[in-house]
Design brief:
Elements (H helix, E strand, L loop, with lengths): L24 E3 L10 E6 L5 H12 L5 E7 L3 E4 L4 E4 L3 E7 L15 H25 L13
Antiparallel strand pairs: 1-2, 2-6, 3-6, 4-5
C-alpha cells in the first residue's frame, strides 16, 4: 500500500519509478518473560497481519510462523505549559513467532557498560582524592573563618 500516486502512462521516455510502501516497523526490547523465539515490533497502524508477514519474509528473509497484533492506547498526560490534557498517538504492536529452532536475542548496542563503570569509578576516586588533598592544603588558612570549614 502506498499513498504515492504516479500516472500509469506517460508519453515519451518515462522515468523508471520505484514504488515504496509507507510502512515502518520498529523493533522493541522484549519483556523479560518472553519466549526466545518471539520478537516484538511496533509498526504503522495501516499494516495488517499479512502485510507484516510478507514484509519480514520478502524483504528480510525471516521465516514467520505466526503474527499477533494489538493496538495499545496512547498515554494521557497533562501539558503543564498550556494546562490541558494531551493524548499520545496509539501504537500497533506486533508479536512475531519464529520457528522453534530459531532463537532471537535483542542486539546489545552499548556493550561497553562494564568499561564505562570502571572508568566512572576511577574518575570518582580521583575526584575524591583531589578534593581531600584540597581540604588538607586549605585546612590551616587564617583568612577563612573557622565556621566556614568543613
Amino acid at each position: 500500500m502506498s499513498s504515492r500516486w504516479y500516472p500509469i502512462y506517460q508519453r515519451g521516455n518515462p522515468q523508471l519509478r520505484v514504488f515504496l510502501p509507507n510502512f515502518w516497523m520498529k523493533m522493541v526490547r522484549p519483556h523479560p518473560k518472553q519466549l526466545p523465539n518471539i520478537v516484538h515490533f511496533e509498526c504503522s497502524m495501516e499494516m495488517t497481519k499479512y502485510d507484516i508477514k510478507n514484509y519480514l519474509e520478502k524483504i528480510y528473509n525471516i521465516p514467520v510462523v505466526d503474527v499477533r497484533t494489538k493496538i495499545t492506547l496512547g498515554r494521557f498526560r497533562k501539558d503543564y505549559g498550556k494546562g490541558y490534557v494531551v493524548k499520545d498517538d496509539d501504537v500497533k504492536c506486533a508479536y512475531i513467532v519464529l520457528p522453534k529452532d530459531m532463537t532471537f536475542k535483542f542486539p546489545e548496542i552499548f556493550d561497553c557498560k562494564k568499561n564505562d563503570e570502571e572508568e566512572n569509578m576511577k574518575s570518582l576516586d580521583e575526584a575524591k582524592k583531589s578534593f581531600s588533598e584540597y581540604l588538607e592544603k586549605n585546612k590551616d588558612r587564617t583568612d577563612v573563618p573557622s565556621w566556614f570549614s568543613i
